[in-house]
Amino acid sequence: MNSEQFQHYLELRYNPNTVRQYLWAYRSFSDGLQNQEDVDNFLIEKVYSKSNNPFYKGFLKAYIDCFFLDEKGNPIFNITKSKRKNISLMKKKDYKFLTKEEVDYIIGRTSPRISLLVRLFFDSGLRLRELIYARREDISLTSRTIKGTGKGNKPFSVRFSPKTTRLLEVFLADNELEHPFWTSNDAKKDHARSFYYFLKKECDGLGIKNMHPHRIRHALGHHLRVDKGFDLQQIQVKLRHSDTKSTEIYTTATEKEVDDKIDREVFE
Fold it and tell me: Of 66, 85, 84, which is closest to residue 76 (Cα–Cα)?
């Protein structure tokens, strides 16, 4: 087993951001993943822990498929399912979407870097690693776009607002990194996870708990449906969902939303 073999395997199947992150995980954890007991412990600690991070499960599957298949191509190690996770899947998930006002509150009260990135997430609908690992050459202030390769190895080009453009221009002028949303040139560091940590820390201080960058993406979908009247197909295009089922979460109306709409459009 070696990192070059794993890198070649990844490059044939995943986008560059995923390749970079899975190689980081390989360097960090491969020495402790040599038998079924190691795999089970990794699942408990990294995949089925309280954070339930799907990144580690994706890495583990790629690692096993690259190095631990039998002569028939079947995995030698099992990736078992968590009983706790299965129980949670039986329950209908209750989404608590951030409102546009809450997103504006975060933008107005966090540090300049965090604030700018929250603006970009909300403008563009990008996923965490798609934005954090964007290269300077893929950002155009003229066309107000960020290009890259996203989920499913699909290319994307998304736009951001004129106001964000002015702030981003100043930010880029003071930042010479190839990946301007990193805090250093350390390619081994998980910069996406680092941003998540500081975003959560600052939002905890504002009284906004359980904050994750993906909640900003959900907030955009919710805002487009509830406040702007976009239909599901338009939201699907904006958020680049390959399956309409992913977009259908924004059809769920809460009791408060209905009451507010009646206050605005019926009682008034």
Answer: 66
| Domain ranges across the chain | 3-90, 100-267
Mean pLDDT in residue range 254-262: 71
pTM of this prediction? 0.67
* Dist CA 239 CA 218 (whole Å): 9
Query: Is domain 100-267 annotated with CATH 1.10.443.10?
Result: yes
User: How far, CA to CA in Å, does 171 sit from each of 76, 116, 127, 136, 143?
Assistant: 49, 9, 20, 11, 17
List, in sequence order, every residue forming a beta bridge with 228; answer none if it has no partner: none
State the burial class of residue 5 (Cβ atoms within 10 Å of its Cβ: 0-12, 13-18, 19+): exposed
In 3-state terms, what secondary structure has residue 49? Answer: coil
Encode pLDDT of 221-250 as tens digits: 999 998 898 999 999 999 998 888 788 888
Residues 6+ apart with CB under 8 A from 184: 177
